[in-house]
């Protein structure tokens, strides 16, 4: 007995058993699914931006080392915008003063920096006076307000960092020390900060904007919740509408929606059981599972209703549908799961979770599509529409067109392929973590305002080691530090440089009677150390120098605020800084920080995903070859399976030209999705080729039997990813758009290129499998249109 005959007999026996025991199958499948779905109660959200980086990520490791050495940079930056555009009015300064005072009470607040509590130094006879720059703002007269403005705008540590040079916007920066004991720490801090901002806006004539790394972490959480509350309901409506238009059966539509809903619940339940913490990418699995789960149901339902239209009763039509589709549906589910599992080669853990959750959801969709769905259809009343759909009627015409125009299609496909594949090189790697959020998000709006009006959101941090305890007071080291600071300030990307060399210069001037000619670095190491010690002893609690120097005073940190840059420009300035230090100071130091971490994330992911996609491609090709029992067709299937992703990236290069970390994930994922249509087309083609039909007749049969289902599943897939493209989180939306393009390319390839390749390369007659032929002779070859 041939393998296909064994499979067919097994599928027939299974279909008979399922129809006889439909209530048992229904109850058992629902109970199993609900048990898996029960894990959803254990789900939690991880809103820390560090979750996007694996533990062995070198940029993360360098950043964490810096965080352990100096004060952490997890912050909220309040930008105070006076409505009269005067940051040095009594009203604006009073708002800053009160905001500064109350910010110390925010959850997990460690340090507060503003114009009002800036530690202004000056000489009074032989004494060094260190005091808040602003006190009693409401009572300051006009002359002193002008003096305050002059001091603030001439101070390197304030200008373009805490106040803009135009004097129209100022900031209050709160540094947080998160204990990292619970996942709601960032939301706690953000909610308290927003409440404080609202209080200040209500009391003073100012607008308050909020940005910073804590706000970034919270924005990930808010984007996730927004997507789950808006996109999932929209997806349900899309699926219900398309399903009903296709099958025109309420019972079939309800059954399919139940399968989709339970598949999604099972995927999220799996995540909960295994301790997965949701992030914006992994939370998008809900929409992706819903989109993919509907495909299996469509193939089974379309075949069943086609059988009913050909004269079979409901149970016989259901039996025939299971027999015809069980193998292809299983194969497409496995290949789709493999495509998503290839995401485990990514360097970003959230995409591991997305791939694993979706793979489980896809396999649960297969399980429910061959258990719960047919059980429901065996129980519920169902009638087939009397006439075929307009899409179905067009399948024969499309088959005729392809057969008549083989040469034109090959030449046209070749030209399009050459043009689009050559355009892949137009893509460039760009990751911008502010750009991950669309312009309707509060975080994006406020961050853009701060970047344009106050200071740079993106920061670079360099830790310069003197090589000895108290070495930062060594004049030779200070000279190198100051030269590097000066060089950084000449770079076009730089907005502000926070360097302790400016503090040494100011102290040297103060302790020489505020003589401006002494605004330079001290030349005596002991004197420099004494200046620093005297200054430190005068600083109030919470405003020490731990954010700039380490405990042993052997190293110091330079913080560089940058313009709104793409990842290429960020990497460039960071690498130029490292090279300058090596060439001019003999110091090895690397520019680190969240912005740099995100800049390298796409590079590292592409390296991993090239391996992952290669592994997925090999496994999928082997599975197709084994399942179809044809090495030739297994290799031939690579063309319509690999080409769509390549064409999609080429079109992306022409239209967009920027590839971020999410877009770099698409190849493996798209490979798993687009292979479905190829498998269904080839399985129907081979089914009748092995009955003795010619290649031309087999192509016509494949179009008529599975063409409608392929079109409808493609429409639903594109619609599903189109819904995901509306995500307010750029990673998800970009990934969805490119995947939708790949699906459209796959549909074109499977309907035009694949049939022509079969007609050209598979002309040899097949040996007829007699037992299969005799069995099929008693079973109508139902078309699904």
Topology:
Elements: H1 3-20, H2 22-37, E1 44-45, H3 58-69, E2 75-82, H4 90-103, E3 109-114, E4 119-124, E5 127-132, H5 142-154, E6 170-176, H6 185-203, E7 206-211, H7 213-247, H8 250-273, E8 277-278, H9 280-283, H10 285-309, H11 314-341, H12 349-369, H13 372-379, H14 390-404, H15 406-422, E9 428-429, H16 442-453, E10 458-465, H17 475-489, E11 494-498, H18 500-510, H19 525-538, E12 555-562, H20 567-584, H21 594-628, H22 631-636, H23 638-655, E13 658-659, H24 666-689, H25 695-724, H26 730-761, H27 770-777
Parallel strand pairs: 1-8, 9-13
Antiparallel strand pairs: 2-6, 2-7, 3-6, 4-5, 10-12, 11-12
Description:
- The structure is a single chain.
- With 785 residues, the chain is an alpha+beta fold.
- The protein has four domains: 8-53 and 248-387, Multidrug efflux transporter AcrB transmembrane domain (Multidrug efflux transporter AcrB transmembrane fold, Up-down Bundle), CATH 1.20.1640.10; 71-218, Multidrug efflux transporter AcrB pore domain (Alpha-Beta Plaits), CATH 3.30.70.1430; 392-426 and 606-763, Multidrug efflux transporter AcrB transmembrane domain (Multidrug efflux transporter AcrB transmembrane fold, Up-down Bundle), CATH 1.20.1640; 443-592, no CATH class.
- It is 63% helix and 9% strand.
- The protein contains 27 helices and 13 strands.
- The protein has helices at 3-20, 22-37, 58-69, 90-103, 142-154, 185-203, 213-247, 250-273, 280-283, 285-309, 314-341, 349-369, 372-379, 390-404, 406-422, 442-453, 475-489, 500-510, 525-538, 567-584, 594-628, 631-636, 638-655, 666-689, 695-724, 730-761, 770-777, and strands at 44-45, 75-82, 109-114, 119-124, 127-132, 170-176, 206-211, 277-278, 428-429, 458-465, 494-498, 555-562, 658-659.
- The strands form five sheets. It has a four-stranded antiparallel β-sheet.
- A hairpin with a 2-residue loop joins β4 and β5 (127-132).
- α4 (90-103) runs antiparallel to α6 (185-203) and α20 (567-584) packs across α21 (594-628).
- Mean pLDDT is 87; it is low at 771-785.
């Amino acid at each position: 007995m041939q393998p296909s005959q064994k499979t067919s007999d097994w599928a027939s026996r299974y279909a008979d058993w399922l129809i006889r025991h439909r209530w048992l199958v229904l109850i058992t499948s629902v109970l199993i699914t609900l048990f898996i779905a029960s894990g959803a109660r254990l789900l939690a959200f991880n809103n820390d931006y560090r979750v996007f980086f694996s533990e062995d990520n070198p940029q993360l490791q360098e950043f964490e080392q810096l965080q352990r050495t100096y004060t952490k940079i997890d912050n909220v930056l309040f930008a105070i915008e006076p409505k009269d555009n005067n940051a040095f009015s009594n009203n604006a300064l009073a708002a800053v003063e009160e905001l500064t005072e109350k910010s110390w009470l925010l959850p997990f607040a460690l340090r507060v920096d503003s114009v009002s509590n800036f530690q202004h130094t000056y000489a009074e006879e032989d004494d060094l006076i260190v005091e808040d720059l602003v006190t009693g703002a409401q009572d300051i007269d006009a002359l002193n307000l002008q003096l305050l403005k002059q001091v603030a705008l001439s101070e390197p540590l304030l200008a373009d960092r805490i106040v803009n040079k135009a004097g129209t916007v100022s900031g209050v920066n709160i540094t947080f020390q998160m204990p990292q004991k619970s996942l709601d720490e960032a939301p706690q801090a953000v909610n308290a900060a927003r409440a404080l901002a609202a209080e200040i806006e209500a009391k003073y004539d100012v607008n308050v904007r909020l940005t910073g790394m804590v706000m970034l972490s919270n924005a990930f959480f808010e984007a996730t919740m927004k997507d789950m509350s808006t996109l999932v309901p929209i997806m349900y409506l899309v699926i219900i509408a398309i399903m009903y238009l296709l099958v025109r059966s309420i019972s079939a539509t309800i059954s399919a929606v139940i399968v989709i809903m339970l598949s999604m619940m099972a995927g999220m339940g799996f995540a909960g059981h295994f301790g997965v913490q949701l992030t914006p990418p992994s939370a998008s699995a809900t929409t992706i599972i819903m989109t993919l789960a509907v495909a299996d149901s469509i193939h089974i339902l379309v075949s069943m209703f086609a059988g009913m239209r050909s004269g079979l009763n409901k149970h016989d039509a259901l039996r025939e549908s299971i027999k015809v589709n069980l193998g292809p549906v299983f194969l497409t589910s496995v290949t789709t799961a493999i495509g998503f599992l290839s995401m485990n080669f990514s360097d970003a853990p959230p995409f591991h979770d997305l791939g694993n959750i979706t793979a489980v959801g896809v396999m649960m969709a297969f399980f429910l599509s061959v258990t719960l769905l047919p059980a429901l259809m065996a129980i519920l009343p169902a009638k087939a529409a009397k006439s075929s759909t307009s899409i179905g009627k067009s399948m024969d015409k499309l088959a005729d067109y392809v057969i008549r125009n083989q040469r034109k299609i090959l030449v046209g496909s070749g030209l399009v392929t050459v043009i689009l594949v050559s355009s892949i090189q137009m893509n460039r790697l760009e990751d911008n973590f502010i750009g991950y959020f669309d312009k309707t998000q509060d975080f994006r709006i406020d961050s853009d305002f701060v970047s344009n009006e106050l200071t740079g959101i993106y920061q670079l941090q360099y830790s310069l080691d003197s090589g000895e305890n108290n070495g930062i007071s060594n004049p030779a080291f200070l000279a190198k530090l100051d030269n590097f600071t000066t060089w950084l300030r000449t770079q076009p990307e730089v907005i502000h440089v926070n360097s302790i060399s400016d503090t040494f210069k100011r102290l040297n001037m103060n302790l020489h009677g505020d003589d401006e000619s002494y605004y330079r670095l001290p030349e005596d190491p002991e004197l420099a150390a004494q200046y620093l010690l005297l200054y430190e002893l005068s600083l109030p609690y919470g405003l020490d120098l731990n954010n700039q120097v380490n405990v042993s005073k052997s190293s110091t940190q330079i913080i560089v605020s940058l313009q709104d840059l793409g990842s290429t420009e960020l990497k460039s300035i960071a690498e130029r800084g490292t090279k300058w230090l090596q060439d001019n100071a003999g110091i090895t130091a690397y520019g680190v920080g969240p912005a740099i971490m995100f800049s390298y994330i796409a590079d590292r992911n592409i390296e991993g995903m090239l391996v992952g996609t290669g592994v997925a491609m090999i496994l999928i090709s082997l599975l197709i070859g084994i399942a179809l029992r044809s090495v030739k067709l297994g290799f031939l299937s690579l063309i319509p399976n690999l080409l769509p992703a390549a064409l999609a990236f080429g079109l992306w290069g022409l239209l967009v030209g920027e590839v971020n970390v999410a877009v770099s994930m698409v190849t493996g994922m798209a490979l798993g999705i687009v292979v479905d249509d190829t498998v269904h087309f080839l399985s129907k083609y081979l089914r009748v080729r092995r009955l003795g039909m010619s290649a031309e007749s087999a192509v016509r049969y494949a179009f008529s039997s599975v063409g409608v289902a392929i079109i409808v599943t493609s429409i639903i897939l594109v619609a599903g990813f189109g819904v995901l493209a509306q995500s307010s989180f750029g990673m998800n939306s970009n990934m969805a758009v490119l995947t939708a393009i790949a699906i459209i390319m796959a549909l074109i390839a499977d309907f035009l290129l694949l049939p022509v390749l079969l007609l050209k390369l598979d002309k040899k007659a097949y040996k007829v499998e007699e037992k299969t032929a005799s069995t099929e002779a008693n079973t109508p070859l139902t078309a699904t249109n």
